[in-house]
């Protein structure tokens, strides 16, 4: 890796200095983005209960604590109940909606689209408080159903945006061709449209899953004691005092989200190569 | 060098003019006639499930919450007869005797219906002592009811009764003879109230109806609002200052390294926010990595306090929000052909000037859109300040959560939500206006 490139001959020292300064700044920003997360990982393998460097003895005891703890297990289990269900609900509703938005233009469509995307920007606390008050009336507070609905609501806009962007590059003559050859609506969708927009649908689903899997504010308000998810449990843990067990879980989550990212990139690249 | 657009460097201004011309071409027509086209019915059928879902679980709850800021029927429900009796009262002196008997009857009825406690708590917010007055009156009425007998059938007897109730109440507690008590009651039996919104803006309504600012030590919400905006603004500026060079640098990299750097941006983006906060809690404390590194390099003598104060909150919020700036900005910058800048330089412009006058203006809409989005996201932050900040660093969201969960003052939580949502919605409309103009000049087009 070259830190100093071969400068072009006309460049003088202010430009060279500027170039080096820009590069230093950028490496600094990258370090700022990545290093804190990286610094977390080795601490989870420390035998010490204080989260400080240097690490003197290595052990897996905190991972052991994590796996044997009933509270953490329940949180992990709940997260894997809520996040996939919310992702499926969001994906079905979001894909249908994106197909609809692509199908026609009519007055008020922009307003409707803005409304459907609005959970993306609405402050989470307001969504949480509003749903909390609403759920108390309709007896959804403290139920899995309520939590899944809330998370699906936050994830659906991502599905709508990703599917919409894939649909922009979708060749609609294929649909006409299919129907002219005698395929019905549903057959055309299942055999032509869906396979072609699948990358968008899948990356939307992944986003919806990640949204639910990470979500803490709405969960804080809506989850009862039986619906404590990983982020919710981490929130209370961190608020009391951060322990090596939390750091061990965080390490696992970093690996998990990196895996999700790689899957997401793979889906995206496949989608690009097809288009 | 005094006049940059002079003929001395025609190249730069030529390139500039090209950009401007493109800009002019791109500006959208102000009025566009929208017509329906395509399969509208099918489209609506497909949109309907998500739209209905969001209507029921998002719009209705939010509207219900917002309405709580101005609509508070707790006292009205508990005091229906009083509300009627006070309807004709002009607020001066004491109300007519029928209001006294109505209030007495309502207190007993509300206690039986179980609505008295909530109403008393609500009244107590406006006039300390009201709760105690109502509950004392309630138990007094219990004792008095035994020797009261049945109410008289004819009007005269009822009038005498009303008179008696009035004298009795005033004799029992002097506050019933105070016009201020009745003014508070008269105000609060109206379900439509501005109390919460005024409180959220550090104002209150005096018993005679004038709107006055709260005393300095009581008015806290405007400073919380200011603090929320200030933290968000600082975060936005920092994110822009760090994100812009990074995105610029990214576009200049060869493909392979570009992918590697993008991964470095995307990994934090995908990592759970709580993991990132946990990371800062490990890195920032007095004995944490940052302080140790800085002390061992002799940059500082004593460890810095970085956790549980504003520095920590800002460090973590900037960390969370940088990807929200870099990713869209990178997309915008990738669409800007480098040939403009090179043309400007080859025609004699200084590289800095070529950057500043040819390149930067093309990125401006992207920066504006990114900064607005970062600012909007920052406004609603809750988790990072709640976990990394001290008492003086909490933002509006924290108080909304606090009034919902801890003190159960939903009116005030709703009023603060109205403020936060209004600010967000307003900025989001600006964002959409900026973003709609974003299409960037590209050679292919």
Structure, explained:
The complex is a heterodimer of chains A (275) and B (445). By secondary structure, chain A is an all-alpha fold. In chain A, 76% of the residues lie in helices and 1% in strands. Chain A has eleven helices and one strand. Chain A has helices spanning 13-43, 61-68, 70-103, 109-117, 124-138, 144-168, 173-180, 185-214, 217-222, 230-240, 244-274, and one strand at residues 104-105. In chain A, helix 2 (61-68) packs across helix 11 (244-274) and helix 8 (185-214) runs antiparallel to helix 11 (244-274). Chain A starts with 12 loop residues before the first helix and ends with a helix. Chain B has a two-stranded antiparallel sheet with strand order 2-3. Chain B has helices at 10-26, 40-68, 74-78, 80-85, 97-113, 116-126, 130-145, 155-172, 179-188, 195-200, 221-252, 255-270, 273-283, 289-296, 310-334, 339-346, 351-379, 383-388, 396-405, 410-436, and strands spanning 37-38, 203-205, 211-213. Chain B is built from 20 helices and three strands. In chain B, a hairpin with a 5-residue loop joins strand 2 (203-205) and strand 3. The longest helix of chain B has 32 residues, at 221-252. The radius of gyration of chain B is 32 Å and the shape is elongated. With 445 residues, chain B is mostly helical. Chains A and B meet through helix 1, helix 3, strand 1, helix 4 and helix 5 of A and strand 1, helix 2, helix 11, helix 12 and helix 13 of B. Strand 1 (104-105) of chain A pairs antiparallel with strand 1 of chain B, so a sheet runs across the interface.
């Amino acid at each position: 890796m070259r830190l100093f490139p071969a400068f072009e001959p006309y460049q003088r020292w202010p430009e060279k200095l500027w170039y080096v300064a820009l590069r230093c700044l950028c490496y600094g920003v990258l370090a700022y983005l990545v290093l804190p997360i990286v610094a977390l990982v080795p601490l989870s393998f420390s035998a010490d209960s204080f989260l400080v460097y240097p690490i003197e003895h290595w052990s897996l005891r905190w991972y052991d604590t994590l796996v044997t703890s009933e509270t953490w297990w329940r949180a992990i289990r709940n997260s894997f109940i809520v996040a996939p269900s919310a992702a499926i609900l969001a994906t079905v509703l979001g894909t249908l909606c994106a197909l609809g938005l692509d199908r026609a233009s009519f007055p008020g469509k922009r307003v409707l689209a803005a409304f459907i995307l609005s959970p993306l920007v609405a402050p989470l606390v307001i969504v949480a408080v509003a749903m909390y008050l609403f759920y108390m009336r309709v007896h959804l507070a403290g139920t899995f159903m309520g939590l899944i609905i809330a998370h699906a609501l936050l994830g659906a806009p991502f599905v709508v945006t990703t599917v919409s962007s894939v649909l922009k590059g979708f060749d609609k003559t294929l649909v006409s061709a299919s129907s002219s050859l005698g395929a019905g609506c549903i057959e055309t969708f299942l055999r032509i449209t869906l396979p072609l927009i699948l990358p968008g649908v899948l990356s939307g689903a992944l986003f919806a899953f990640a949204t639910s899997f990470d979500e803490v504010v709405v969960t804080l308000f809506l989850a009862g004691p039986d619906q404590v998810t990983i982020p919710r449990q981490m929130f209370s843990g961190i608020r009391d005092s951060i322990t090596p067990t939390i750091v061990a879980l965080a390490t696992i989550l970093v690996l998990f989200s990196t895996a999700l990212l790689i899957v997401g990139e793979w889906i995206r690249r496949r989608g690009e190569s097809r288009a | 060098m005094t006049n940059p657009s002079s003929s001395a460097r025609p190249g730069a201004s030529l390139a500039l003019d090209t950009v401007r011309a493109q800009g002019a071409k791109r500006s959208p027509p102000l009025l566009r006639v929208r017509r329906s086209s395509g399969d509208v019915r099918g489209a609506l059928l497909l949109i309907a499930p998500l739209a209905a879902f969001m209507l029921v679980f998002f719009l209705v709850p939010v509207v219900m919450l917002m309405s709580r800021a101005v609509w508070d029927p707790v006292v009205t429900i508990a005091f229906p007869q009083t509300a009627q009796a006070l309807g004709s009262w002009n607020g001066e002196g004491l109300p007519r005797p029928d209001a006294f008997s109505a209030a007495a009857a309502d207190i007993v009825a509300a206690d039986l219906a179980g609505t008295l406690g909530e109403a008393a708590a609500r009244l107590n917010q406006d006039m300390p002592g009201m709760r105690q007055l109502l509950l004392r009156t309630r138990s007094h009425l219990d004792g008095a009811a035994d020797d009261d007998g049945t109410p008289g059938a004819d009007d005269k007897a009822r009038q005498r009764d009303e008179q008696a109730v009035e004298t009795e109440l005033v004799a029992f507690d002097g506050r019933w003879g105070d016009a201020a008590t009745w003014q508070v009651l008269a105000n609060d039996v109206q379900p439509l109230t501005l109390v919460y919104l005024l409180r959220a803006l550090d104002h209150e309504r005096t018993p005679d109806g004038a709107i006055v600012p709260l005393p300095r030590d009581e008015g806290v919400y405007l400073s919380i609002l200011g603090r929320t905006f200030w933290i968000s603004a600082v975060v936005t500026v920092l994110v822009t200052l760090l994100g812009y060079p990074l995105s610029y640098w990214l576009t200049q990299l060869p493909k392979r390294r570009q992918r590697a750097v993008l991964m470095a941006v995307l990994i934090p983006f995908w990592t759970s926010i709580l993991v990132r906060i946990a990371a800062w809690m490990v890195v920032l404390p007095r004995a944490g990595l940052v302080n140790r590194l800085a002390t061992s390099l002799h940059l500082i003598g004593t460890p810095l306090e970085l956790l549980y104060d504003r520095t920590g909150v800002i460090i973590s919020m900037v960390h969370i929000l940088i990807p929200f700036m870099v990713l869209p900005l990178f997309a915008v910058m990738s669409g800007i052909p480098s040939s403009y800048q090179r043309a400007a330089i080859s025609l004699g412009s200084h590289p800095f000037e070529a950057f500043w006058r040819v390149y930067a203006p093309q990125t401006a809409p992207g920066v504006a859109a990114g900064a607005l989005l970062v600012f909007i996201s920052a406004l609603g932050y809750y988790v990072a300040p709640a976990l990394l900040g001290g008492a003086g660093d909490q933002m509006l969201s924290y108080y909304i959560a606090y009034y919902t969960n801890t003190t159960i003052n939903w009116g005030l939580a709703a009023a603060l939500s109205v403020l936060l949502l209004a600010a967000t919605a307003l900025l989001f409309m600006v964002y959409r206006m900026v973003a709609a103009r974003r299409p960037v000049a590209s050679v292919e087009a």
